[in-house]
Amino acid sequence: MRCFRFLLVASILAAATAVLGVPIRGDEAAGPIRVLAWNIWNGGDEAKNEPSPARKIEKQKRVAEAIRASGADVVAMVETYGSGETIARELGFHFHPRGTNVSILSRWPIKEDLSVYKPFHCVGALVEAPDGRRLAVYSVWIHYVDDVWTDPHSRDGRTPADLIAKDGPSRVTEVRAILDGVTAKTAALTNATVIVAGDFNSNSHLDYTEAARDQYGLVVDWPVTRTVAEAGFRDAYRVCNPKVDRKKDRTWSPRSPDQIQDRIDFVFWKGDALAPRSATMIDQAPGRWPSDHAAVLVEFAAP
């Protein structure tokens, strides 16, 4: 019976491809679901500020090519700034924006808007894979109040307590408001994996540990990621890569090697239907990498 159902589903998918011309990946009915978190930098390599229409489209297409090469099914995009429609069209993806900054791109249709908090900071969507697996995906951006991960001298003479204090209670208030909204919005969803991903402009309390003191020089219980953990979300990248490797892990910044290299972009998840089986930092593409952030790709599958 199981084999018959598989053949029936395969026949339906093949018919949909032939009739509708919809690109269907061969393994998506039972395979992994790939989620990408990426701040593309002002619409993609600063396409937002590009005066040449041809150059603007070229930059947007390079972002699309990087996403296509990653194999991502769903993208939590930050700094979209007018480029989302072009990028989604290049990929054949559905596009779900909110405001100018954050957006969601999906290989599969958006079933429902799940947005919470402020439009510039958070957009949410319910995505359903062809086999019925559901993801409540949130793309977020958390503001920053202190330059603790760019200026190489920003931490000189400062204690962990100083850094935590300057990281800002406003940022904790912001992320807590988003998470409270997400929890309320998704409470009625059954068998759905909740994903909160994007640019948190924050270091991780899972990186600045005693075991990694030789890499970071400090042990810091960074409050933003700590707040996410206390809300029951887990850091997919760190679960898949438990050993801290600052060079391999960093997402800021492939374009600014003179600045502090840190992991500030995350994919967090909650739920038992799916679990991460691999997570990778991506900062390479043909030609110049089109962002000042690396991307984080997580592959989810049944646990």
Automatic annotation (TrEMBL):
Signal peptide range in chain numbering: 1-21
Designated name of the protein: Endonuclease/exonuclease/phosphatase domain-containing protein
Molecular function via GO: catalytic activity
Domain Endonuclease/exonuclease/phosphatase, first and last residues per copy: 37-293
Keyword Ligase: no
Organism in which the protein naturally occurs: Paludisphaera borealis
Signal among keywords: yes
Alphabetically ordered keywords of this record: Signal
Superkingdom of this protein's organism: Bacteria
